[in-house]
Write a structure and sequence with these properties.
Chain A is an alpha+beta fold. Chain A has seven helices and eleven strands. In chain B, strands 7, 8, 9, 10 and 11 form a five-stranded antiparallel beta sheet that branches. Classes of the chains: A alpha+beta, B alpha+beta.
Chain lengths: 222, 760
């Protein structure tokens, strides 16, 4: 009898572990955009302990699950950060661009591309997930020590108007990113990638860099 | 009397040594002992040794599997297992980077990247403020290392990210996880190594049994441990095989246990004293010394064999007894000359073998001289069937060789030998001395291709009369690398820490930021931040004036960094390391165009040093022949006595011919073994000459000695260690010719009855 009970307990724990793992992925997917191609508005608020008020910026996010994303800030600065799926990263002000290198951009690119692409497999490999059912949020805590140097946790909150991402780092700085008016684009739009990009963000250089990222760190020109 | 005193004294010292040190006997497995010093200057040699020790003390384990999460769990489990092993410390790359960042932070006012310096030099203050504000709105600002109050412009974050990027080890890339471990204490001491290897294997097995992963190993430690394991097997085989073979042979010949007491005793005392002396002088005993020393059994036993044989003859004849002792003395001297010449090599391994062997030979000889009369009180019975028949069988063809043919043979052999000597292929590549397992090599290659690290055997050394000069030259080297070889990466101190002079300049560059109403003040006012933060920053900046971080301080506080800086009394030197996979030929050219920069290619330099050693060893061999020739002239006072040297000389020539013909490239260890061929040859030929009263008995004793030696060296020649194999094979061939040559000499070249020879 004892043995049967033990076996049942063991089987139940296996079942619940497997179920729990799939619950994490499911909950995560629900919190994240679910389209391969979309454009959204973002509002970013960055709070530093030393600052009396948060630093607010806004802009447009253009995401293509095959190519990467463009983070186009419009106010108060006009510049785009391009994170490509080929692991080449750039900053562009429309006239010139520079290559972005280093572990910070590696981590950020991986994080943003996974979040925007709802790549739950990659996210679950990098983060431990905890649910706050009351608040309706998920908290991701980095497992990788390199990532822990960059941030301490990410909180995902889904609202009627869109998704909110809170990023906290060890210096008690927080960044809140609200994604609003997420507009999914069609497969037809994907085929006309460059035109779609130009129409969405209006920045030819950024769209060119996303479509065909240059390999070498050579001269930056319009 | 003197012999008895020396014997008793040596025995006492040996006993004292073992009673005090028996728990501290250390067996060294450092393969560097097999290579000569490649740097003539002591400071460079020391610096290279320090860098080599750094490499030897670290190894990497890589966990490979299809599931990243499982790899991470397996890595955690393995780290836990390894943490429990005494003497091992897991390197935490991120903690180490945090430590170095923390150490650099107080000096942040002295540290700028090239682009930051350029911006401060060229851009107006308004633009600097604008750029700083822009940065605050960028997404990458979420990952600042320091707080806003410490580093509002994020300069230190960018500096650390750039300069420490090359130091980041380990990988979270899908497919594998790497763990780097450092060993405290002597990584290459055998008992320590064995303990760690066993504990590591157990830890790995635990992890592999729990998770579906495979483990890859990389590091000098594993190669040394494998070589030590193999050496241990060889030692067991050679010593056990030698001992059993020799004892069986003695039993067959003497048909009694009592005559075996003397050989066993002489071997025991010889080996014990050899171990004590070598360990006392060097503080440890190298595993290769033990391997070579195991073959000593075959030589040491000669003294007791000749003693037993000649005691079985007319023992009451004092002239016979005196001849025996004289022959034993001459034999000892020539063997000591043969082995002692190894000590003239600059290879630590061979010097240790020389000390071990000479002390063992002397002690064994003293044992025979002092204990022989007491142990062998009456003449032992000698087999009259086996050896005499074997001797007759060997002598049968030798009897047919006439003097002139013998002479002709000697001349032709010498002629060929000269021809071959001028074109003998040498095998001086140090990699030929080891035969690492294929599995280890493949794992090493796999790990090296993926884990970012530096080439351990090829790098630049930059020297200068002071720190600033070294930094200038490092700068020139980096510039040359960027221009001529941009695909390769140079890792030097200049990547992590600028010179004190540059730090002073960068401090001045940052004055524009921290001065009253400077960039910081303007920025913080525009953001509505209280003045106190700017004031605190300015105070920190002022306090940091004239405080510079020096390279040796950085390296002393971060022992996990490679030791690439050395402060000498007359000069400073620094290493610039190369990334793995670098184009070596292209890079080596850069050393030619930069003053004070030399390219170190350890394998090539070692090869050259070994080649010089090999060539000079022939000169030393010539000197040894000369020394023995003088000894013979002193002893026999006749030029004809020099004909005795023809035996080992012919053996040496035949060795070289046969090895070359077989396509075996001669290494230093082949040539060093020729010294032993000389010693053994003289051993036999001296007995043949001295003991002419009982020629048959003498020849049987020589035959028995040769068989025991051939047994020992024959076993050595089948060792899996290439250096031992080279040594054994050369002596095996040489000693066979020694035996034949001695028998031929005894048959045809024995001089007429001695007249005018020195009396006792």
């Amino acid at each position: 009898m004892k043995r049967i009970l033990l076996s049942l307990c063991f089987a139940w724990s296996l079942l619940t572990t497997a179920t729990w793992g799939s619950t994490d992925a499911g909950q995560l997917a629900n919190m994240l955009p679910n389209s391969c191609l979309f454009v959204a508005e973002f509002v970013q608020k960055r709070q530093l302990p030393a600052l009396p008020t948060p630093l607010k910026s806004d802009g447009l996010l253009f995401f293509n699950c095959h190519q990467g994303l463009i983070w186009q800030t419009l106010n108060p600065i006009d510049e785009a950060v391009i994170y490509t799926s080929q692991k080449r990263y750039f900053r562009s002000d429309g006239k010139t661009f520079e290559h972005l290198n280093g572990p910070v951009h590696d981590h950020l690119a991986k994080l943003l591309l996974s979040l925007m692409g709802a790549d739950t497999k990659v996210l679950l490999q990098q983060f431990a997930v905890a649910t706050d059912e009351q608040q309706g949020s998920l908290t991701l805590t980095p497992l990788d020590s390199g990532l822990q140097r960059a941030l301490t946790e990410i909180q995902l909150i889904s609202t009627t108007s869109g998704q909110t991402i809170h990023i906290a780092n060890k210096n008690k700085q927080t960044t809140e990113i609200q994604l609003l008016n997420i507009k999914n684009l069609s497969e037809k739009d994907e085929k006309q990638f460059k035109q779609t990009c130009l129409k969405a963000v209006g920045r030819p250089q950024a769209c060119s860099l996303l479509a065909a990222p240059p390999a070498t760190e050579s001269a930056e020109g319009a | 009397m003197l012999a008895r005193f020396l014997f008793a004294f040596s025995l006492l010292l040996t006993a004292l040594f073992f009673s005090y040190y028996h728990t501290q006997i250390s067996i060294d497995t450092d393969l560097k002992d097999l290579t000569p010093s490649i740097a003539k200057q002591a400071d460079l040699s020391l610096a290279i040794d320090n860098l080599s020790n750094y490499v030897e003390r670290r190894f990497t384990l890589v966990i490979k599997g299809p599931d990243v999460a499982i790899n991470a769990q397996a890595a955690t489990a393995l780290r836990d297992e390894i943490s429990a092993i005494n003497g091992l410390r897991i390197e935490q790359p991120e903690t180490q980077l945090d430590d170095i960042a923390r150490q650099l932070t107080p000096y942040r006012f002295n540290l700028l990247t090239d682009s930051q310096r350029s911006a401060l030099e060229t851009l107006p203050e308004e633009t600097l403020v604008e750029n700083a504000k822009r940065r605050l709105f960028q997404l990458s600002g979420t990952a600042d290392i320091l707080t806003f109050e410490q580093d509002p412009l994020g300069l230190m974050t960018d500096y650390l990210n750039q300069s420490l990027a090359g130091l980041s080890t380990g990988s979270t890339e899908a497919g594998y996880q790497a763990i780097t471990v450092s060993i405290s204490g002597n990584a290459l001491e055998m008992s320590n190594q064995r303990r760690i290897q066993a504990a590591l294997t157990a830890a790995e097995e635990t992890v592999v049994s729990q998770y579906p992963v495979t483990l890859m190993r990389s590091g000098v430690f594993f190669f040394a441990a494998a070589a030590a394991q193999q050496s241990k097997k060889d030692i067991s085989l050679i010593s056990t095989g030698s001992m059993i073979g020799v004892l069986l042979l003695l039993l067959l010949v003497f048909r009694s246990l009592r005559p075996m007491i003397l050989p066993v005793l002489s071997i025991a005392t010889g080996v014990a004293t050899a171990t004590a002396v070598t360990h006392f002088i060097y503080g440890s005993i190298h595993v290769l010394t033990i391997v070579f020393g195991a073959s000593l059994i075959g030589i040491v036993i000669d003294y007791s064999l000749h003693y037993c044989y000649h005691r079985s003859g007319n023992q009451n004849h004092s002239a016979s007894r005196n001849s025996l002792y004289r022959a034993l003395m001459l034999s000892l001297i020539t063997s000591v000359i043969g082995y002692g010449a190894l000590g003239l090599s600059s290879l630590d391994a061979l010097t240790k073998v020389a000390v071990f062997s000479c002390s063992g030979l002397i002690m064994a000889w003293l044992t025979v001289i002092c204990c022989g009369p007491w142990i062998i009180r009456k003449s032992p019975a000698i087999d009259t069937m086996l050896l005499p028949r074997l001797l007759a069988w060997i002598n049968s063809p030798l009897n047919k060789i006439k003097n002139m043919w013998l002479g002709l043979f000697a001349i032709i052999t010498a002629g060929f030998a000269v021809l071959y000597l001028s074109g003998i292929p040498g095998g001086d590549d140090p990699r030929l001395f080891f035969s690492p397992s294929q599995e280890l090599l493949e794992q090493e290659k796999w790990v090296s291709e993926r884990i970012s690290d530096f080439e351990p055997g090829r790098y630049f050394v930059v020297t200068g009369s002071n720190t600033e000069e070294v930094y200038q030259r490092l700068g020139q080297l980096h510039q040359a690398q960027e221009l001529e070889s941009p695909d390769n990466q140079l890792i030097s101190l200049a990547n992590w820490l600028p010179s004190a002079k540059q730090q002073a300049l960068d401090y001045k560059h940052q004055a524009v930021l921290y001065k009253a109403d400077g960039v910081i003040d303007t920025l913080l006012v525009s953001l509505g931040i209280p003045n106190s933060i700017a004031d605190n920053l300015r105070a920190d900046y002022n306090r940091a004036a004239n405080r510079y971080l020096e390279p040796d301080e950085l390296l002393a506080t971060n022992p996990w960094l490679p030791p690439i800086w050395s402060n000498g009394t007359e000069r400073q030197l620094s290493f610039a390391l190369l990334n793995k996979g670098a184009d070596i030929e292209q890079i080596a050219m850069m050393a030619n165009s930069t003053e004070g920069v030399d390219f170190i290619h350890l394998v090539a330099m070692t090869e050259e040093a070994l080649k010089q050693q090999r060539l000079s060893s022939f000169l030393l061999l010539g000197l040894a022949y000369l020394a023995i020739a003088l000894l013979l002239l002193v002893r026999y006072k006749k030029l004809s006595s020099l004909a005795m040297l023809a035996v080992p000389a012919a053996a040496t020539m035949c060795c070289i011919l046969l090895l070359s013909t077989a396509g075996i490239a001669l290494t230093l260890f082949h040539t060093m073994a020729l010294f032993l061929v000389l010693g053994l040859g003289m051993d036999y030929v001296i007995f043949a000459r001295e003991m002419t009263q009982q020629p048959k008995l003498t020849q049987q004793a020589i035959l028995l000695s040769a068989i025991t030696s051939l047994l020992s060296f024959g076993l050595l020649s089948i060792s899996s260690i290439p250096v031992a194999q080279a040594f054994g094979l050369t002596v095996l061939i040489g000693n066979t010719i020694n035996l034949l040559g001695t028998l031929l000499y005894a048959l045809h070249l024995t001089p007429p009855p001695l007249s005018g020879e020195m009396n006792d």
